[in-house]
């Protein structure tokens, strides 16, 4: 049974896990994205820039497909955006796809047995990544 996703926004702790710390504007966009991704169907990926939702993918059998849909919806505006995921990355493929389209920062819960692979991929592309320790995944 999944526990209630009732953590107050003020209680969300961001833990930077990459070499690069996010800039203040990225933090603001990540917090906005984190609030929004909570309300999207499972396997949710959203892209945000300047507190504007640019693209969203959700309800897919894999997170990478959701990321591809979000990227398509965002179009060229995706460059310089931040990515939010409702749950951890089981593989580093979403981070690599994000790097390929110009995402600069990622917010996700963390908690995968392969977190180190995602962190290394983010470091490779100078993407700031933070973990919240709380998932929004809805099943």
UniProtKB/TrEMBL annotation:
InterPro entries: AICAR_Tfase_dup_dom_sf (IPR024051), Cytidine_deaminase-like (IPR016193), PurH-like (IPR002695). SUPFAM superfamilies: Cytidine deaminase-like. The keyword Ubl conjugation does not apply. One of its GO terms (molecular function) is IMP cyclohydrolase activity. This is IMP cyclohydrolase. One of its GO terms (cellular component) is cytosol. One of its GO terms (biological process) is 'de novo' IMP biosynthetic process. Keywords: Hydrolase, Multifunctional enzyme, Purine biosynthesis, Transferase.
